[in-house]
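Quick question, first post here. What does this chain look like in 3D?
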Amino acid sequence: METFQFELAAGPWWLYALLVVVALVASIVTYRGVEPDPGTPLRGVLVGLRTLGIAALLLMLFEPLLRLTMSVTTTPHVAIAIDVSKSNGMRDRSGERAPVTRKVIGELQEKLRDRGYTNADVVVFDDVVRDTTLEASSVEFKGFRTDLGNVVRGMANRGETRDYGAVILITDGNATSGDNPMFDAERSGIGFHSVGIGDSIPPRDVAVQSIVATSVAYVGKATTVSSDVLLGGTEPQDVELVLEDNGAEVSRQNVTVQPGIPSTVSFVWTPRQDGVRKIVVRAVQTAGEFTLANNAAAEFVRVRKDKRTVVLVAGAPSPDVTFIRSVLEADPTITVSTFIQKQGSTFYEGEPSPQLLRDAQACFLIGYPTATSSRNVTQLLASAWKDGLSMFFIASRDVAYDKLYDLADVVPFRVASSRPQEFQITADVSPTSVSNPLLQLGGSDDAAQWNSLPPIYRTETFVQATSGSSVLATIRVGNAPLEEPLILSNDRGPARSAAFLGYGLYRWKLLSEGPQRTRGNVDVTSFFDTFIGNAVRWTSVRDDERRIRIRPTRSLYASGESVTITASILDASLQPVESADVRVRITGPERREVVLAPLGNGRYATVVGPLPAGDYAFDGVAKHSESGAEIGREDGRFSVGDVSLEDASLTLNTSFLRSLADRTGARFVTPDNLDALVDAISADPRMKSVAKTFDRELVLRYLPWLLIIAISAFALEWTVRKRRGLV
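> Answer (accepted):
Ran it through. Tokens below.
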């Protein structure tokens, strides 16, 4: 039923009527003295035209509204969502799941029709949700992943137009993709019922559920690889696990695994070769095992060369230079190239070459530049920073801040004023700052350790952080805190940069560690060494690694799953590159070369499609489409058909499906109890017919008709007066 009401938003009806009456009276009075006398009929017409025009203008000023009210009685709908991933059609301990699922679909539709729910919607889902018109006998289970979060959100969104009161999930409840759907399900207000497919008792089987390894490792440095192993059955069992690196066995372990309890097994892996390595943890087949499809888990790890080059440029010999250099040289993974300035502008070792700076991962500037430093070197360092070389600036008493103009974009601060007057300071670090990788010490109270360090030195130099820079630590003079930066960092330019605006760091090693070592405590942790190590690791990250990202959407694809390559391309100022030519060469069991299509905002993608099973390497390069100049490149690896997450889902996840039903006021049942499910849906108050009222307002003042009426009335009046010669 629909009703309408005419209202005025800017004033009451009686005021509008009064003004119209006033306009009528004024029009009558005006035409009483007009010459020559037009006669009563024409005078009435002219008075009416003028009153009509004024009334139309007044109506526009009073903002007329037409309010439409519609009442509709709606009956909530039922939707059936069928899991068509591989796990819902596999064989488990109780038998084949596919026939059971098809039988449930048919019986459930029939029972719903018997209760009057003849308009139940049917959708299928794996990692996406799709409408379907297939009969129950025609449903195939070929999905590579199960995203329960996606189907819950999808049905909730559809429910806004279809008004769902109940959604029935026919699934084993095992999500192999996406996030937890509980919050979205509760917020939707829909009852998410479920029919559990599969056996809740696990068969006798060993499953390697996951593998955890660092994404970056270094040649010759040991790292830990962990894996979770789950045993099905009722009795504990000895399981032999093998760690493989690119198919070659690294080590073996025998562990005793308790049934139903995930066991974490850790391996120590020392990479011997750089590149992207495929790490696999594999369980050796045991007697009576149900399936071998879930006996392995794989991950890709990028292994870097063990040697990093750090360039150290100093304005003069000093204790800071000696101590920092000794820490760097003590690390076997670092090659140090030192350049110490003599009297004048020359260096003992000669000037650093552009090639050395291009090959280096980080550069430490200690007390450099000085008053006699060559501008050629500062310009060379600025150019190297723009090409991706990270910088760490450490002050000294003799540093010439006025010579930093070539490095103004490099250092993360601007000098407000500077005097060579020296005074003592201590570090002031807040508890929130120690989460930064530069300040992490690995202790329980890193901030307290920073704030208890011996005093160091600083000149009367006052600075301001540049745009995008972070102040990690300030200073204290005595017990008085000052909001003057001590440590700053910036990672938003072409390369990273950091600054330490104090000197005498050697005092931290001598005064904090020396007394303890004198007392025989040789195991004391070196704060100084940790801080310099943090600085090397933080500055050694090449910025083009985060500006250029070319990679597949997954590192492990199931056999037959479509492969997609995506890219994100940013320039040196971290702005999206919209006109890049991005090409990827794929090598492996099948070779492909693809061109990525632009998606906007520096993003590119292409669908490669299914590839034959095996290991693949890819090499992507991005170039400017006009000049052909290379922006950057990235390589890596991915695998097809090695491990299928769906094959690991051997049991019905009753705990998840029960929890989903309980938290949405719904019901979880097994295939032999469909009547109880239909009874619960029929008794659900959300399935009752409800009357809904919809209000809609139409603002009439913006319609042209009122203005047309007013102009037409005044124009017609003027025409008649003109033709009759009325004055």
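The chain has a mean pLDDT of 87.
The first strand starts at residue 2 and ends at 8.
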